[in-house]
Amino acid sequence: MQAIRVHPAPPASTPYSPSNPAPSSALHLDHNVPIPKLSKPGEILVRVKATTAIRDMLTWPETYSHEYAIIGNDISGIVTEVFSKDCKFQPGDEVFGMAAADRAGVWAEYALLNEDELALKPKSLTFDQAAALPLSAQTAYEALFDHGGIPVPSVEEAIKNMAGSSSQKDHRVLITGAAGAVGIYLVQLASAAGVHIVAATSSNARNEEFLRGLGAHETIEYSRLENYRGAFDVIIDVVGGEVLAKCWDYVKGTGVLVSVDSASFNFVEEHEKRGIRKDSVRALFFIVKGSSQALHYLAKLVDMGAVQSFVVRTYPVSKAREAYDHANGRYSGRGKLVLTV
């Protein structure tokens, strides 16, 4: 099969690592890579149709767990083989999902996944649109529901909430980076949960209409957040830096502060050193785990029209370097950069 692999650093140079990440030129489209083989119950072989390019993938520790690693986590495709007859999927099923962070490996024609990492693809989405969902939308799902403590609405409740009949309107949620790749799903899922949403953004002129269309009740630029001291039950941060540091001022004393910004993995400890942490606030950073339950729920919301998928641009897998560089630059448009395989 063909696969995009991370080639080692040239001889006599410093090996690539998270502290010395490989450049995009280390990404090579290799041919005649062995197709993965099923080896245990629960494993599924998927013919990959689409995946995504994500910022900073070449800085992740998992990328350097072995030489010639195949990267990539988001996936949509077609099941070609299952290990067990009692598997909940069968060859020919159209699926989407996310390979665990410690395995990745979907920038290839075929990929091995566990059945609990997949769900049936939403019928209303193309493979490209389905691939844009799993990592970002599941991050939003876990941030709001698993860690933010907001109850997961049924699909029927979600539809009613989005129509304005929620009983949780007094529950206030701030989302920073609301127009970004994760933020757009945070806003949509928070709208489905029926909470009052304040979407923070760098530019109201550019993003207000879009974010209100996703369900935000208010949009605000970061410089104006000073008026919201102690106002929020839950804050989900996707920005980090000083925006995250100021969030301690905006969360209620008994509230929840969650960051999904990868550079903020130790923010609680660092902010404690700076004397800005509130002990009464439940604060945490997390890395998305993913589950078939979350994927199935998201697929139902998509097919009911409660969640939209966003694709900025699609690249063929032969243009993986260009796609990765695009993901790491500042680009216009909303959503994910997709690789078709």
UniProtKB/TrEMBL annotation:
Classification via CDD domains: MDR_like_2 (cd05289)
| Bias (Pro residues) | 8-21
Listed SMART domains? PKS_ER (SM00829)
Residue intervals of the Enoyl reductase (ER) domain: 22-339
Q: Which residues form a coiled coil?
A: none
Q: Origin, by domain of life?
A: Eukaryota
Q: Name one GO molecular function term.
A: oxidoreductase activity
Pfam families documented for this protein:
ADH_N, ADH_zinc_N_2
State the residue spans of region: Disordered: 1-26
Q: What is this protein called?
A: Enoyl reductase (ER) domain-containing protein
Species in which this protein is naturally found: Aspergillus caelatus
